[in-house]
Recover the amino acids of this structure.
């Protein structure tokens, strides 16, 4: 399902196994509990998270076959992914997605919900597939797209042409930070970036709060806001 | 005034005649009715291409008509501004990809009409984009600004468009990210390029309802202003 490795002060979260890493309820629960573990680690405010995967896929999106067999599970998967993304947004440390395989639909949203997206250029693409499979894009996915892709033309290309965005195109579009020649180099670069960030210092709690403010629009879609207009974030464990 | 023709998968909406194709209550009603027609005839793989004849794509509202009313001039302006909203809404709601092939100048509401398409192609050699309001002392309707904000990303580009009174040529418009292309030196060249794009989009055979829904969800603030509901408010559709 997923594994967690600590390398010095870096947390490396990996979607394991050679499958499509479809975001079914079990995997989503596993990811959330791993993120919670990271959050409650005493060194968390001085760390960096790297998320990566085994095999051909980063994640091929929701488990649509499961949703078809039981429509209430699609509601459940959506709710669990929203919670996971909210947790990522409030995480008191910078996050890096080392994308070494295809990331489609919900899987693409998961990748883009990281602060940095590093991707291999030799294989794999980011793909908001919904138009091709006749699914509507949820409003909260659009909030992520709006916050992470600045150019209206790029958003249109990603969402309204269901473009299969390879790393170099992603860099041009401003979705991907940098591209590498292989999966191994991508992860190495993510580790190097993580170490540079840690060296810079700074308080992860402050970082997390700032990210919440920056991505407020996404948070309000994923977990709602209380009456004062402040987003209701669970489990921050922060006294700030 | 304007015609709608179907050639294969592509609907061609043409603003006919050699005039400025100004928007007047009659042209507005005509365009609206043709868009409704295209919508009712749409199938998987339909695409709309909008173009014009002559030197103008559209030079905006028929201000002369408004002013000819003497005492009712302001009312007439309000009427046109109000009745034009459904045209932009109809384009945003259209269950097929939309492409504007600018044969010539697009100003004010004429430019808004162009920008309401998913793709905008301009000529390289002729034709400008011009938000004339700042020069003629007319305020810009709120839904015009919402459209510019939705379609044009950079602050600098928005300023150049709305506040500078500049007449933007093709190359400038591409550089500012306002249009997708200004590569062709003739109206025919632009139309050909849009037909080529149209055919590649048509080949995807997308479901038009889904396409329109996804398009509207890209521009929620604009849709709100145009009183269009994005029907993905129930987000549990995976």
């Amino acid at each position: 399902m997923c594994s967690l490795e600590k390398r010095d002060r870096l947390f490396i979260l990996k979607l394991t196994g050679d499958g499509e890493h479809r975001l079914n309820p079990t995997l989503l629960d596993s990811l959330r509990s791993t993120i919670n573990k990271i959050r409650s680690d005493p060194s968390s405010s001085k760390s960096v998270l790297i998320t990566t995967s085994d095999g051909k896929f980063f994640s091929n999106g929701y488990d649509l076959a499961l949703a078809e067999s039981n429509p209430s599970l699609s509601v459940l998967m959506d709710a669990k992914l929203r919670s996971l993304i909210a947790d990522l947004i409030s995480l008191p440390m910078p996050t890096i997605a080392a994308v070494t395989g295809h990331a489609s639909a919900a899987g693409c949203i998961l990748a883009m919900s990281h602060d940095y997206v590093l991707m291999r250029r030799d294989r794999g693409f980011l793909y908001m597939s919904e138009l091709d499979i006749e699914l509507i894009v949820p409003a909260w996915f659009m909030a992520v797209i709006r916050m992470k892709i600045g150019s209206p033309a790029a958003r249109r290309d990603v969402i309204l042409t269901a473009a299969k965005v390879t790393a170099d195109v992603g860099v041009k579009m401003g979705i991907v930070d940098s591209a590498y020649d292989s999966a191994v180099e991508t992860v190495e670069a993510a580790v190097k970036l993580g170490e540079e960030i840690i060296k810079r210092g700074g308080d992860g709690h402050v970082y997390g709060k700032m990210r919440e403010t920056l991505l407020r629009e996404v948070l309000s879609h994923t977990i709602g806001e209380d009456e004062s207009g402040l987003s209701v974030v669970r489990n921050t464990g922060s006294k700030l | 005034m304007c015609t709608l023709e179907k050639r294969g998968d592509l609907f061609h909406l043409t603003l006919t005649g050699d005039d400025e194709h100004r928007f007047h209550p009659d042209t507005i009603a005509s365009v609206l009715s043709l868009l409704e027609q295209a919508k009712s005839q749409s199938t998987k793989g339909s695409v709309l291409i909008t173009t014009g004849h002559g030197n103008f794509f559209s030079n905006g509202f028929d201000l002369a008509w408004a002013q000819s009313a003497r005492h009712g001039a302001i009312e007439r302006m309000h009427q046109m501004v109000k009745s034009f909203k459904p045209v932009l809404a109809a384009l945003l709601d259209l269950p097929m990809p939309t492409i504007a092939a600018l044969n010539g100048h697009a100003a004010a509401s004429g430019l808004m009409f162009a920008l309401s398409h998913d793709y905008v192609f301009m000529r390289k050699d002729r034709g400008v984009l011009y938000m004339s309001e700042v020069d003629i002392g007319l305020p810009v309707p709120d839904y015009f600004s919402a459209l510019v904000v939705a379609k044009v990303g950079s602050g600098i580009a928005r300023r150049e468009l709305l506040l500078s009174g500049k007449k933007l040529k093709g190359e400038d418009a591409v550089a500012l990210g306002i249009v997708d292309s200004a590569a062709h030196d003739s109206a025919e060249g632009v139309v050909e390029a849009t037909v080529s794009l149209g055919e590649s989009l048509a080949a995807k055979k997308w479901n038009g309802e889904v396409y329109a829904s996804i398009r509207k969800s890209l521009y929620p603030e604009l849709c709100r202003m145009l009183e269009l509901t994005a029907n993905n408010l129930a987000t549990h559709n995976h």
Notes: The first strand of chain B starts at residue 2 and ends at 7. The first helix of chain B runs from residue 25 to 40. Residues 2 and 15 of chain B are 4 Å apart (CA to CA).
